[in-house]
Predict the structure.
Amino acid sequence: MSAVLIFFVLSGYWVAAMWKRTYSKTTSAYFTYLVSRVWRIAPVFALCSAITWALLFWRGDAPMAFGGLMHQLFSNIMILGYNSLPFQANIPGWSLDMELQFYLIAPAIIFLISKNIQLLLICLVISAAAPLLGGSATVAPFLLFFGVGVAAASHELKPSRAFAYRALYASLAVLVFCAALLAKELYFGSAQGAMALAFSSKTNLLIAATMTPWALYTTQQSSGAKDRMFGELSYIFYLLHWSVIGALKTGEGSYLDRVLLCSEALVIIFVASYLIWRLFDRPINKLRASWVSGRILDAPVGFGSAGVAGAAPAMA
């Protein structure tokens, strides 16, 4: 969970940065922005959903009842409502539901926080009141993390190298402590207490909080085409891994069997991710980028257009 929360922070940062640099300068800015965001993540999501369902039927694990058919079809293609499905074929898809819900309201959040960073408190209040606002079926519990990223981009909050590394070391210290505690209790034959602590929501929140400065620091680093490729591959890898390890049953058998199956799964996921990226995702993304570029308004005479399309991460 801590990794997903950090991803939400980075998502908030990059969406705010892209809105400022590109989308706000386009024709019908909100329409352009929303179409672009859905266009960027939905096609790959729909393809991976189809692969997941095909593997479920192939191994005979598809459920007899899976909730409303229209809800399944819509959410497995357009993502919205995925986390509230009675049966989720691809469990990691829940975070993309939160991502898309954030996209719907992001321009309003960007506008408010860019005017006054103290309005980040609105995100805090909404996240704290999440149980009254639909719980984890909505973006409410995670809005604070998206908001932190928006605030960092809108107000150019840039952690120093020293501070970022101290935050990274603090995060590693928490992780090492949890791992040592687990190892100790496993050695003595019981790890229930250690697991309850190491994987608790409070520990995940602590790790996400301590890692956030480091995550924001990475946004200041330049990157090349290869780095961007791996970033885009990570999205596909994330959506494929659950269905592949389920199909191969990597959690069954002896430790040697599991190592072999996990190795096989990694190869399959990497190869499949690369093929999907090269033959499906990249061509679609080029069309999307070209469409957005064609909607950028001409700069007024006397003003350059440099900086309109800045660097962005995997799902930019």
Q: What stands out?
A: Residues 159-219 form one domain. The radius of gyration is 21 Å. Residues 255-294 form the longest helix (40 residues). The chain has eleven helices and no strands.
